[in-house]
Every structure is written in C-alpha cells, then in structure tokens.
Amino acid sequence: MKFSTKAIRAGQAPDPSTGAISFPIYQTSTYVQEEPSKHKGFSYARTENPTRKALEVNLASLEGARFGLCFASGLAAINTILNLLQSGDHVIAPDDLYGGTYRIFTQLYKKFGLSFSFIDQTDPGNVERAIQKNTKIIWIETPSNPLLKITDIQEITKIAANSGCLSVVDNTFASPYLQQPLRLGADIIVHSTTKYLSGHSDVIGGALITDKEELFEKLKFFQNAVGAVPGPQDCYLILRGVKTLPLRMEKHCSNAGAIAKYLGLHPKVKKVYYPGLTDHPGHNVARKQMRDFGGMVSLELKSGWEGVFRFVKNLKLFSLAESLGTVFSLVNHPATMTHASIPKEVREQRGITESLLRLSIGCEDEEDLLADLENGLKHV
Ligand SMILES: *Cc1c(COP(=O)(O)O)cnc(C)c1O
Description:
Layout: H1 3-9, H2 50-62, E1 67-71, H3 74-82, E2 90-94, H4 99-109, E3 115-119, H5 124-130, E4 135-141, H6 153-162, E5 166-170, H7 175-178, E6 188-192, E7 206-210, H8 213-226, H9 232-242, H10 245-265, E8 269-273, H11 283-289, E9 296-301, H12 305-314, E10 319-320, E11 330-332, H13 344-349, E12 356-360, H14 366-378
Parallel strand pairs: 2-3, 2-4, 4-5, 5-6, 10-11
Antiparallel strand pairs: 1-7, 6-7, 8-9, 9-12, 11-12
Helix pairs in contact: 1-2, 2-9, 3-4, 12-14
This protein binds pyridoxal-5'-phosphate (PLP).
C-alpha cells in the first residue's frame, strides 16, 4: 500500500460484528476472560486497548516500521526512551532542542546521573567530536524549532551506528508524510501526535516507532509499567486526523512556500527562515531527505518589540498561541512564549531575538493568509 492508502486504512479493518467502517472507540478498562489466563489478547486497558492498537499499527505503517507505541503526550513518549538508559550514560542532543525535551533532560534526568551535550548538529563533525565512551543516544530533531535548521539524518545515524549508539529522531515537525527517518537509518522515531498527525488542535498525544523487536519489547514494557497511555477517545481523534494527513500536508507546504516567498520580499522583514528557500543553509539536505519543506516559517522583523507587538495584535487569522501543525494558522513569539525559559543571552546567541516570530501555516486559503500578514505588517 502507498502512503495515503495506509493513512486511511492501515490497522483498521471494518468491525467484524457490525461492519462499522469507522474504527470503534473501545471505552473499557477491562475485558471479560473466558477462564483464568484465557482471553482474546486484551486483559487490561493500560496494557492493551483495541483503539490504541489500531493507531499504533497505523502510525508504524506510515513510518515503514513494524512496531508502534502510543502515549498520552509527546513528552510521555520522550520520557519513555530515557528509561533505556542507566546512570552514567551520556546523550548528544541538538542545541535547539524542543524546550520540553530540554527540560526533561536537564531538570529530571541530570539528577539521576545522566549527562547531556547540546551541540549544533548541522555539521556532522560536531557530533563525531562530541562522542564519549559512555554516549548511548544521539538525539536528532529536524527541521528544528524555531529556526528550522536542517540536520542530515543519514549522516548522523551513520555516526551513531558506527559508535554503537542508538539514534532517535523527533519527527514531529516534518510528519511521516514529508520525512521517514527509519529509512534513513534511525532506530527510534518520536512523534508528538498533538501536531500534524492529529492536525486539528483538539488532542494531545505521542508515539514511538521502531523496526527493532528488542527495542520495541523494552519500550512496550515501560509503556505498561509507567502507564502514560492515551485514552481511546484521544486515539480515535488521532486516527481520524491521520486520514487527511497527506491532503493537509500538501496544503500546509504550498501555503508556507508562498508565504515564505512573500515575506522574503517585504521591506519590513529582516530575515525569513524556511528550508524551501534556496538560500537556506539546509536547503540541499532538506531536498534530499524531505518530500517537501513543511508548514513552519519563521521570520525576523526589522522592528523591535513594539513593532512585533503591533504586528501580532493586528493579525486576525494567525492566532497567537503555542503549539503548531494544525489546520489553524498560528503565530508564536518564541522569546516570550515557547522559548522563554532559555536564558536571554543564550537565546539571543542562538538567533532567537525579540524580533523573531514563528508561524505555523494552516490550511486556510493562501490569499486570506497573505492578506492577513500584509495587514499586520502595515501596522509595524
Ligand atoms: C510539541 C512537541 C513535543 C512535545 O509533545 P507534547 O504532545 O506537547 O507533549 C516534542 N517535540 C516536538 C518537536 C514538539 O513540537
């Protein structure tokens, strides 16, 4: 099956008792057993739920993998991976890692004796130089947040394999429609299904995907042991969202491409960050490993805080909100919102200035979105 067929069908045969084509929400905590230890594969809903199972099979198939596991949030999925490590182990991660992941690493796990190096992975040489004897995981996130830096997945996973480390790719920003890291050598993929996979700003969820049975067994053990599992209604919403992932991604990408081009020519805009622009430093790598360039665009205004404030206040379609990857267009001010917890000097050094805005381009009409930005920029 090809991608769109899988998105609609994988893991979801029509319900055998009724023929319902839409996969049922199995709202149950337990399952009646015929006799002790004899059941139909389901004993308790923390361990297994049919709606969750359908989603797990579906997401694994989209990444071309055999195994999927779903969690109550992206961070619950990320936390599960860290259970693979022992005190004394070392992790290499990007210097512009998703803030919540950075927080788990530095505020929850450092105290258990794990250490972390945060480096610029756009140069694979930096990764090679950061490897220590105790390095166990190389964590990759591409495109990155909010500057949309591109990391060469194939290069970095090769370095990981040669050094006996696991490679993990957070594939939330691209979605499996645009980028399939297992095919590029990754061991584990993480998704916040809150974003493009569900796509409608109505549910929180996460997933882990792997093709390695031994890793899957370990991660599945942690999933059940810790219990940060999603409910069946949430799984249903994500399954529903995934059915239109290819359609939505096409629209996100075409809208984003047009908006990046428009902003690049605007006299009040200092800089546009979008991997689809040929002058983006990661453009060629993005072209190699992605089907298209995604729905996230960041921009730096020439004006300082006051202009930024007026711009955001005057936007009507771009809603000021955290999160991304849904049908609604959103605008985020990283310095005061998603990246506010990073110390100011570090933030500015990385290019996350007061004048930077991150746009999550939705699926509204291109003309309406361009008109909204035009109006916002008039007030800068
Ligand atoms: C949102 C996000 C997460 C965390 O997911 P939640 O569902 O909010 O817990 C992790 N990584 C990336 C890249 C994200 O955008």
